[in-house]
């Protein structure tokens, strides 16, 4: 698990089930992008937002928008949040960057760069990155169709 911005952490499935590490980091909300929860489940006292996604271009635009909005909401509320997928290198990185772009004055490219610089094993699939397009006003970003 890596802290990639204020109140925002990215990690894999193992980090999501590590209650001691979550407590040490002060994590209040876990955003889970995997189809199955961690083997040990999620620790008590941590709010869990689950939006299972697959890696690559087959993700539903509405689901992607929903999970980015949920993550953006936790950040706007000042909650320490962990976004996780299986390995913490693709889906979680993209969702974290899109949410970060939505709550800061930086664009998606800058937010993604910030996340990548603090999460060494990160290697996001290009399709979800293309889907996230930050805009100003209203909800702060919108989902775009894939251009494969």
Q: How would a crystallographer describe the biggest sheet?
A: 5 strands, mixed
Q: Rounded to an integer, what's the Rg over CA atoms?
A: 14 Å
CATH domain class:
Alpha Beta
- CA-based shape: globular
What's the SSE pattern?
EEHHEEHEHHHEE
Architecture, CATH level 2?
Alpha-Beta Complex
Average pLDDT taken over every residue: 83
Q: Into which percent range does the helicity of residues fall?
A: 25-40%
Tell how many strands the DSSP assignment holds: 7
Instruction: Name the assembly state.
Output: single chain
- Strand arrangement within the widest β-sheet reads 1-2-5-3-4
Q: Total number of helical segments?
A: 6
Q: Hey, roughly how much beta strand do the residues contain?
A: 15-25%
What are the segments in which pLDDT stays under 50 over at least 5 consecutive residues?
134-148
For the record, the count of structural domains works out to 1
Coarse structural class? alpha/beta
Key structural traits:
alpha/beta, 6 helices, 39% helix, hydrolase, globular, phosphoprotein phosphatase activity, 148 residues, Protein phosphatase, Protein-Tyrosine Phosphatase, Chain A, Prot-tyrosine_phosphatase-like, disordered C terminus, five-stranded mixed sheet
């Amino acid at each position: 698990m890596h802290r990639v911005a204020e109140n925002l952490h990215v990690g894999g499935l193992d980090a999501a089930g590590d209650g001691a590490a979550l407590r040490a980091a002060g994590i209040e909300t876990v955003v889970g992008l995997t189809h199955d929860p961690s083997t040990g489940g999620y620790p008590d006292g941590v709010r869990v937002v689950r939006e299972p996604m697959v890696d690559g271009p087959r993700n539903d635009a509405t689901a992607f928008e929903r999970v980015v909005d949920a993550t953006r909401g936790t950040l706007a509320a000042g909650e320490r949040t962990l976004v996780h997928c299986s390995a913490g290198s693709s889906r979680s990185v993209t969702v974290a960057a899109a949410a970060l772009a939505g709550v800061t004055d930086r664009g998606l490219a800058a937010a993604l760069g910030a996340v990548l610089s603090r999460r060494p094993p990160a290697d996001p699939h290009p399709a979800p990155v293309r889907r996230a397009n930050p805009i100003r006003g209203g909800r702060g970003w919108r989902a775009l169709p894939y251009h494969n």
